[in-house]
Specification:
117 residues; mainly alpha; globular; 47% helix; Cytochrome Bc1 Complex, Chain D, domain 2; binds heme C
Amino acid sequence: MRGLWGLLALGLACQFGCAPGARESEAGAGTDTGAGSAIEAISAGEARRLYTMKCSLCHGPDGRLGASRATDLSTSTMGVDQRVGIIKYGKGLMPPQASLSTAELLGLALYLEGLRQ
Ligand code: HEC
């Protein structure tokens, strides 16, 4: 039974990004994402750079391109938490961004607010 509890504990720890690379980049940015602490998002400038690199291909710089049947982000009504989930795990034709840290995911989710009309 002890092995089962170990697995459970691991599952809980993984809720906040156990994706490969996530830990290094979090450590590099000096962001403490340990349980119970507030998670800080990356800066708006960094979020814009990430968005341009990883998202504008399908969503366009203003969120409205709609390539690969991507949702128009300027009219999206999704909340921040939901967006973080979609960005991290992907949906339909949208690829998951498993290598992004929690701070990066949150920064992107907040950046999308600015694309709304
Ligand atoms: C390969 C194309 C592609 C890329 C790259 C991409 N997306 Fe998407 N995105 C989609 C598609 C397609 C959907 C619709 C998914 C569905 O509902 O089936 C979507 C949906 C979304 C949604 C949900 C909006 C809503 O209201 O339903 C968000 C938020 C989003 N994308 C953000 C992002 C962000 C941020 C990035 C960059 C990290 C990104 N996407 C990169 C194709 C893409």
